[in-house]
Amino acid sequence: MTPADLNTRFGQPGLNFVQGAGELTYAEIDNTGGSARICLQGAHIVTWTPKSETEPVIWVSDLAKYGPGKSIRGGVPICWPWFGPHATEKAFPGHGFARTVMWQVTGSETLADGATRIKFMLAQNDQTRAQFAKACRAELVVTVGTALGVELITTNLDTEPVEIGEALHTYFRIGEIGDIRIAGLENTAYLDKVGEATRRTQSGAVTCTGEVDRVYVDTEADCVIEDARLGRRIRVAKTGSRSTVVWTPWQDKAEKMADFGPGKQNQGGWREMVCVESGNALENVVSIAPGDVHVMAVTYSVERG
Questions:
Q1: How many domains are contained in the chain?
Q2: What angle do CA 224, 278, 61 make, to 5 degrees?
Q3: pLDDT by residue (tens digit) across 201-252?
Q4: What pTM, to 2 d.p., does this model score?
Q5: Which domain range does residue 122 map to?
Q6: Does residue 92 fall inside a structural domain?
Q7: 203 CB neighbour count, 10 Å cutoff
Q8: Which of 77, 103, 105, 274 has the fewest CB atoms within 10 Å, i.e. the most exposed one?
Q9: Which CATH number is 147's domain given?
Q10: Phi, psi at 6, each rounded to 5°
């Protein structure tokens, strides 16, 4: 559907569909609670800023690449139906195909509090069916307002159980990577993927003094990014998720990625972001019985004072 068709069918006060970077279609949302931009390719939330904040909460790189089949560096990429490399096929895309294929808009509404809700469904094609033969329906519900709500819904339409890995690979805008603390993962087991993969247990809050790539398992806890530089706390509250991933590439790895740009203080874009990802990975992958529905829901909000 063209942006004009989408506006006719799904347009709401504060919700407008446009063609933008990379000749892709975006949902532009601006209401009394916040603003956001969502790319229909990947149902990818590119950025979100509540009206209470001068800086975005969801970060996107200044050098992000936009175009058909390209994953956007930043925002909220959807990892589905597997997380990380495919278990058996090295040629399949890391983190699955959901973030680089088209999603269809299936509904929209303005809520009583002024928030905007928009619904998407992943559009299957021959390539996705070749990589994931199970009959499943993937849907995303995004609610934009003073908080940002995201629900990733998987329905098993097959006659056999299906196993999926998933994550919302969310990039957060922070003041300085060395100044933040991430609370909520204390005493939680994790796989440390920097260097030789090792199992460890988190002691105290998570801090970053170098590359961090950790998959925390068996945790349903809220995470709070305590940001001293910007004077705010970002709360990540989740249900239906048993894994949390924390990632920052640090300088050496970021410099090898063409889509990480310089930050506002010319420190490097990687210094102004951190990923705290809600998902189900490793031993927390989800088995869905025939006809059943699995919902992973995350709410992002900002706290001050």
A1: 1
A2: 80
A3: 999 999 999 999 999 999 999 999 999 999 999 999 999 999 999 999 999 8
A4: 0.96
A5: 3-174+239-303
A6: yes
A7: 8
A8: 105
A9: 2.70.98.10
A10: -65, -40
